[in-house]
What we know:
Layout: H1 30-35, H2 37-49, E1 58-59, E2 70-71, H3 76-80, E3 88-91, E4 94-97, H4 99-110, E5 117-118, H5 133-139
Parallel strand pairs: 1-5
Antiparallel strand pairs: 2-4, 3-4
Amino acid sequence: xxxxxxxxxxxxxxxxxxxxxxxxxxxxxxxxxxxxxxxxxxxxxxxxxxxxxxxxxxxxxxxxxxxxxxxxxxxxxxxxxxxxxxxxxxxxxxxxxxxxxxxxxxxxxxxxxxxxxxxxxxxxxxxxxxxxxxxxxxxxxxxxxxxxxxxxxxx
Length: 155
């Protein structure tokens, strides 16, 4: 098999470093992003493991896009938090939420360069090669799961 055989698979090179590589994997859904799990993970790597922010590389797996992630109402907490405002739009009477955009914005704010944040342009809400809980709830399609594999390789 080749990486191209699997949607969303990506390879990346580690920056040269004297340190042992460190890999962190988190799931950051709406509640996790709202709670700052992605920021906490980056800070943990920096504060606990001594990783320099300029050495952090982030990769977002396929996620639901704002065209598919919409609601007729939205939690007041999300609307009241000013930092969410750029990532919530209104269209056709619904609130559209860009979770991945918020996550990337927060990581850039922490000092991770945008060029070191990989973000596939895959909307799991629209792309049926992927399971989407939101699509499952809306359409009744069977439940499923998505998997994610991560590894560190030094050449």
